[in-house]
């Protein structure tokens, strides 16, 4: 029997390369029809994994473009539009759905078309000819990143990578585009290590619960890592922004709690301090960071990602190791990663 989930996790380096080839032309065709001003706001809309993608994308987008950017669950667009849409600022909305048929995303798109006609809506999907592509005049389509599995892995990283490329292009940052273009090769080189990470921390039985921590754009990645583990294994797991973990959640740490930190280089000293605090209450800590992060390199339980990238460009490079972790934990528990409990590939209301 073909294991779709594992195949799609391993296919990420090749699929990223394809995304970087096709997105520039798609985006530039869209950009010609957009009129942006310094007051333009960007809204990123999604459900489930696509909402966590939106959270990371909005942070990454604002960081380099300077435009105000935010992420909202699709349902809030049509249930509480006054709380998520500006009445005064022009808005561009990215509506994200792997299948292009997610009910709430389509309802949000239709609500914007009927009640907020000045909002420019851009669909982001992995399915050509889907309802989302029919309901939006402009869209980014990554058909090569479509999946047969229920859980989203390569679709998540490819759509996030596409949005990063768009942000770098809008910001006129060729240096960041060059970094993004290095990602497929770096991912291919580190894939064996990422799989080893998954086996090391997923196949063991010494952790009964997991907590994922991330700061800024990495918070959305931590949320998505939690969701992947939850979907595939139903193991108790939670996520928090890194330094907020001390403010209450650290109380749930036990010797059987594994805390996984998506650590950037810019804030390594803060992360190292938190590592010591978690270990002081007997928690297990694993840091995903770069090979050259000297502040964290001396700590136990460090998985080293390739060097040579900014914290901004490195975002998607964290995900394959976290995908492997969820996959390996599922197989260790005897679950089928291709058939997660109570889930289907798309939610249609």
């Amino acid at each position: 029997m073909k294991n779709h989930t594992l195949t799609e996790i391993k296919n990420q380096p090749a699929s990223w390369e394809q995304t970087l080839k096709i997105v520039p032309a798609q985006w530039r065709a869209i950009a010609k029809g957009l009129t942006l001003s310094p007051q333009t706001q960007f809204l990123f809309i999604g459900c489930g994994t696509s909402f966590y993608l939106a959270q990371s994308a909005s942070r990454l987008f604002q960081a380099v473009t300077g435009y105000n950017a935010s992420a909202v669950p699709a349902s809030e667009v049509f249930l509480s539009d006054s709380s998520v849409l500006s009445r005064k600022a022009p808005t561009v909305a990215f509506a994200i759905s792997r299948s292009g048929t997610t009910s709430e995303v389509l309802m949000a798109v239709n609500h914007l078309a009927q009640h907020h006609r000045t909002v420019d809506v851009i669909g982001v999907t992995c399915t050509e000819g889907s309802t989302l592509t029919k309901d939006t005049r402009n869209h980014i389509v990554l058909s090569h990143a479509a999946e047969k599995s229920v859980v989203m892995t390569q679709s998540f990283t490819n759509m996030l990578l596409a949005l990063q490329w768009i942000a770098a292009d809008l910001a006129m940052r060729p240096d960041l585009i060059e970094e993004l273009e290095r990602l497929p090769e770096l991912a291919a080189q580190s894939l064996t290590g990422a799989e080893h990470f998954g086996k090391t921390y997923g196949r063991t039985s010494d952790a009964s619960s997991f907590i994922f921590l991330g700061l800024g754009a990495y918070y959305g990645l931590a949320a998505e890592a939690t969701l992947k583990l939850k979907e595939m294994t139903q193991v108790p797991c939670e996520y928090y922004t890194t330094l907020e973990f001390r403010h209450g959640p650290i109380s749930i740490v036990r010797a059987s709690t594994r805390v996984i930190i998506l650590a950037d280089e810019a804030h390594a000293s803060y992360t190292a301090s938190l590592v010591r605090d978690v270990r002081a209450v007997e928690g297990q800590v694993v840091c995903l960071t770069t090979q050259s992060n000297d502040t964290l390199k001396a700590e136990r339980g460090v998985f080293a990602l390739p060097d040579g990238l900014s914290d901004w460009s490195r975002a998607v490079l964290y995900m394959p190791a976290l995908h492997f972790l969820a996959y390996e934990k599922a197989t260790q528990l005897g679950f089928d990663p291709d058939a997660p409990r109570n889930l289907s590939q798309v939610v249609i209301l």
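Strands lie at 41-46, 68-73, 91-97, 120-125, 138-141, 209-214, 237-241, 257-262, 284-290, 302-305. The radius of gyration is 19 Å.
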